[in-house]
Specification:
This protein has 393 residues and is an all-alpha fold. It contains 19 helices and no strands.
Length: 393
């Protein structure tokens, strides 16, 4: 039952990744059909991110009241309903409205499953959990591509919504499997209420880890959004070649998490974060030095993707050990919220800055956020309560 439940959790995380690439893949066709400007995709994306931030902050209260299994099941159902409604939408305004329930669903799944795996499974499973998110995010653009080839963008959203319904059916059928692991409050012998945001912020090390997580996600999403433009504008790489290598950042991230799973348990979370940061530093140097051949700039983004891979899962997995099991859901929910703040605003800020300086500044922008991340994460590890009711890694 233990392994079967883990497979179900992996499947649920695929459902989280599936819709994430749909908007970007389908928008060139969608905006024409809806009569919306090309740039307005950013509005929908920000609405989804905003709703995700809110639901992440509410995740502790929801999981304590309904338990992780029901939060995940309801959220997948809500996600499938939102995507189905997307497929039937005929206006940009309606898409904006539908972004709210979809964002709520995504944030709830993300926070609930991250905390559940951090509490009950070792670090390699956390790496593989996020690898499966990447599987979902990689598959969905191909679904949209096939839909645009043989039908319309609506078919892409409809197809993914049907896949989500299938996943929801599996989740509903396997609800009894979740009994194999006890609720964290029961394990600690406590029956406490919600910790709350302010109480969580007063725990030593929590503010540091939140800003460290923000720094990581700010760098990651800036790289994903602007890699192709950087290669084209600063290295003279053709658009087709730049797009191909920029996509390898995402693939490198997914493959890197699969590989990291084999080493994370022995190395420990803190060392995996340090190793990932060192690899990212090498990748940033490779893309920053103009005297290096073009190959180094292209390969540099792949190296950065591999370096990103262990950082996110390791920060999440270390949370129960650093701050205690009963506080972990509140803190992981806040980490998700800060992650989405970083991913929502940092790429836009870079676009604004680069409009004045040029795209050449990108490696230094990435480096600044990674310096912030490693300083804050190291501070968090040193100052955390290190309660022993969590798994030591």
């Amino acid at each position: 039952m233990y392994s079967l439940l883990l497979a179900v959790i992996y499947l649920a995380f695929i459902s989280l990744g599936l819709p994430d690439s749909l908007l970007g893949a389908g928008w060139p066709s969608m905006h024409t059909a809806l009569g919306a400007p090309l740039s307005s995709a950013g509005i929908i994306s920000m609405i989804i991110s905003g709703a995700t931030i809110v639901s992440s902050l509410l995740s502790e209260r929801m999981t304590r009241k309904f338990s992780a299994k029901y939060v995940v099941l309801f959220s997948v159902i809500l996600s499938s309903a939102s995507l189905f409604a997307f497929s039937k939408s005929n206006s940009f305004l309606l898409l904006c409205i539908l972004g709210i329930p979809y964002g709520f669903a995504a944030g709830s799944i993300d926070a609930a499953l991250n905390n559940y795996v951090a509490l009950h499974y070792n670090s390699r499973h956390m790496s593989w959990l996020h690898c499966f998110w990447g599987v979902g995010a990689i598959v969905s653009p191909y679904i949209m591509s096939l839909s645009l080839t043989y039908s319309t963008w609506r078919t892409g959203y409809f197809t993914v919504s049907m896949i989500q319904i299938g996943i929801a059916v599996i989740l509903a059928a396997t609800v009894p499997l979740w009994r194999v692991n006890k609720d964290p409050a029961e394990e600690a012998g406590e029956n406490t209420g919600s910790l709350g945001i302010m109480a969580a912020l007063r725990i030593r090390g929590v503010p540091s880890v939140l800003f460290g997580f923000l720094g990581y996600c700010a760098a990651e999403w800036t790289c994903m959004l602007w890699a192709a433009s950087y290669l084209t504008e600063t290295r003279g790489v053709t658009e087709e070649r730049a797009a191909a290598f920029a996509s390898l950042v995402f693939i490198g991230l997914t493959v890197g998490r699969f590989i990291a799973g084999f080493f994370s348990e022995r190395a420990g979370d803190r060392n995996m974060i340090r190793a990932g940061t060192a690899v990212v530093a090498v990748g940033i140097i490779m893309i920053a030095v103009p005297a290096l051949p073009e190959f180094f700039s292209l390969a540099g983004f792949v190296v950065i993707g591999f370096g990103f891979a262990p950082v996110y899962p390791s920060i999440i997995h270390s949370t129960p050990h650093n701050f205690g099991k009963t506080a972990s859901q509140a803190i992981i929910g806040m980490q998700m919220a800060f992650a989405y703040v970083g991913s929502m605003f940092a790429p836009a800020l870079f676009g604004l800055i680069s409009s004045y300086t040029g795209l050449w500044i990108m490696p230094f922008y990435l480096a600044a956020f990674f310096v912030l991340m490693i300083i804050m994460i190291e501070t968090a590890f040193r100052n955390a309560n290190n309660k022993k009711d969590g798994p030591a890694s």
